[in-house]
User: Fold this.
Amino acid sequence: MTLPLSKAQLDAALAELVDWTYDKERGALYRQIKFGDFSQAIGFMMRVALEAERADHHPEWSNVCNKVDIWLTTHDAGDVSSRDVALAHFMNRLAGSGS
Assistant:
């Protein structure tokens, strides 16, 4: 079983994760990414889907036009885990947002 991050670990992760916040109600990392158009948004989602499948860790997300809303949580941990942080870093690199 994957363990949730401690408050200190979560704070440290959020300090490194550009544009991510903590959604306390959902126990999840949250970010909205806006792209130039729908095609770019879907392309991003497809590339993330391949990585998520390899990691066996899948995002909760939605897409409307050029926007992708993302929530990352580890259900068996009941909150954010290191797996969510790793996927958030991957998404930021893919979206060109640094870490």
Notes: Residues 38-55 form the longest helix (18 residues). The mean pLDDT is 96.
